[in-house]
């Protein structure tokens, strides 16, 4: 079973990376379902693009009552959690460094402007990002909740030697996303 899975994986990765052909075009949906989001191929490991505007991702949870009233919790800085997990660790995990940042980057690229349902890939990445937020909020002890909301603060990198504190140039608050109930 392991050998079969490995062979199927190698074939799907080959078809994903190969120039367009009859087989890869016919089975593109199945190939993409296998590749994204865990096996995405890019060259950033060898030549990463430095961030020109770092982003801080915040999340909060909410509980919706039977009457439809939503009670929101406090914002939790998910980016600060990642930074704390990496700082002072001589061998930080790749996941701790990049999972949230890459999930947001891929989502914002796939979604474009607004939060209306976009292409299937954007919807999948929205579920992935909501899952990351829900998992972190549940681990933080946010109690029972059934929806999450994200806020992203983007701060441009100032010129070297420029005085004054950096302030966010833009804040994007996404709508509430329903998630699997946590704590119920």
From TrEMBL:
Annotated InterPro entries: DUF5819 (IPR043857)
Highest taxon, organism lineage: Bacteria
Full protein name: DUF5819 family protein
Source organism phylogeny: Bacteria, Bacillati, Actinomycetota, Actinomycetes, Kitasatosporales
């Amino acid at each position: 079973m392991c050998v079969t899975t490995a062979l199927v994986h190698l074939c799907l990765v080959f078809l994903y990376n190969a120039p367009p052909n009859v087989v890869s075009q016919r089975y593109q949906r199945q190939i993409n379902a296998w590749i994204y989001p865990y096996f995405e191929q890019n060259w950033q490991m060898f030549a990463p693009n430095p961030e020109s505007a770092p982003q801080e991702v915040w999340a909060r949870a909410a509980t919706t009552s039977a009457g439809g009233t939503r009670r929101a919790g406090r914002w939790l800085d998910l980016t600060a959690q990642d930074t704390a997990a990496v700082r002072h660790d001589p061998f930080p995990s790749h996941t701790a460094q990049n999972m949230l940042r890459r999930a947001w980057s891929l989502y914002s690229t796939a979604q474009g402007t607004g939060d209306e349902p976009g292409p299937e890939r954007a919807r999948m990445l929205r579920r992935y990002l909501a899952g990351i937020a829900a998992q972190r909020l549940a681990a933080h002890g946010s109690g029972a909740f059934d929806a999450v909301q994200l806020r992203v603060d983007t701060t441009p990198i100032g010129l070297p030697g420029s005085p004054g504190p950096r302030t966010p140039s833009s804040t994007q608050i996404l709508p509430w996303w329903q998630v699997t109930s946590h704590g119920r």
